[in-house]
Prior knowledge:
Layout: E1 2-6, H1 18-32, E2 36-42, H2 47-51, E3 54-64, E4 67-76, E5 85-89, H3 105-122, E6 129-133, H4 140-146, E7 157-162, E8 191-192, E9 195-196, H5 198-205, E10 208-211, H6 214-220, H7 228-233, E11 238-240, H8 267-282, E12 290-294, H9 306-316, E13 322-327, H10 331-343, E14 348-352, H11 356-365, E15 368-371, H12 381-387, E16 391-395, H13 398-403, E17 415-417, H14 422-436, H15 439-450, H16 456-469
Parallel strand pairs: 1-2, 1-6, 2-5, 6-7, 7-10, 10-11, 12-13, 12-15, 13-14, 15-16, 16-17
Antiparallel strand pairs: 3-4, 4-5, 8-9
Amino acid sequence: MNVIHLSAECYPVAKVGGLGDVLGALPKYQCLSGLKASVVMPYYDRKFVRENDFEVVYEAASNLGNRPFNFQILKERTNKLGFPLYLVHIPGLLDREEVYAYNDETEQFVAYQLAFLDWMVQTPKKPDVIHCHDHHSGLVPFLISHSGRYRNLSAIRTVCTIHNGQYQGWFGWNKVSYLPEIDLTMTGLLDWGGCINPLATAVKCCDMFTTVSPSYLEELSINSNGLEHLFQMEKAKGRGIINGIDMQVWDPGTDQMIVNNYTTDSLKKGKFKNKKLLCHEFGLAVKKPLFAFIGRLVSEKGSDLLPEIIAKSLLTHKNKINFIVLGSGELVVENKLKKLYHGRHKNYNVFIGYDEMLSHRIYAGADFLLMPSRVEPCGLNQLYSMRYGTMPMVRRTGGLKDTVVDFDTPKGYGITFEEASIENVCEAVDRAVKLYSDETKLNTLQKRMMSLDFSWNTSAKQYINLYKSLKHL
């Protein structure tokens, strides 16, 4: 079976969040399971692209309404990622450094989809399944069914995975001319709330849609930024499949991004060595419990709560605990976190930005990982942290609810709380401080976490079974 994944991100080519991590791992594990899986993504002027060898496998001209454009399909020559990687290169649209944040983002992603489909029309061997990820490729299921230009693709099955339903790619009907030769009687499939909504279109038109955790599938019917009724109507063709992690990349025993490698057998000494280096780097005391936050500093992650949580917890525990924050996002949150550092520099530090190597060092060196998320479709950080013996402290929502079991329950291993509130998180910190004082118990829980299997093997097989079921539709 031949499956093509369409995504705006793919690690290590371009990553902004969990979407990139998923697309860097899922196709690789699917190929290992016998599937022919590949990724087609936009071209970005980034280090990976500049330093690796690509060949042009297709080039043509297309149009975005009355705007013509030329495009190339580039293929990475060496199969370096464990699966075929293709880039859609469009001069003036898909040739920039950043993944998002451009004013013509609608034009970028519509052109990306059109170029891909134009290529597919001319490809002799069609894929069995096109797997779209988030709204950036959400128009594809509609176009292959309702555009005369892509009529010879109509037999291809489509799957859409929703990594974050809050972002939907809305654009106005004044840009409907971007879409070529569509059946105008079917434009209701494009509409939601009076505009063209690519994510809603994908859910309506794909053969099956998935979410990145079972709990998130349930939550979308209650909270999905205006699409609640749609998810209630289409629930029958939805499946919740929990994300995995690449156990080869995230392995404290072999990770080249950390200084001291360790396994469950050498956990205590190995983790302490990494913590000692991390604390020295950021001016923190190694003997104090170290709490970390890694992620985007945005409301859905609960990051706006961090300054007060940190200040209150340090006061409650009389500066006998440490905090470190790695992330970037909303300017007001960044400024509050930087301002807090000046008064708490002996017990707290912050790195504003994105640093992949530093994130690995924090997972290896921290004792606890804070995730006070308001929305968390799956979450990967808690899976990474457990792999490194760092206890996740999570709000019971989405994938966090599906993957973290409170240590006070039988076979539990993490710390959970119900609300994304300062009070709830501070109470969780209190529990963590108490647990930290019981070294034997904490060490047992750390080993239990490290032994859990959250690899892509199981998830990849679930996707393959889903693809196979589409043959009967």
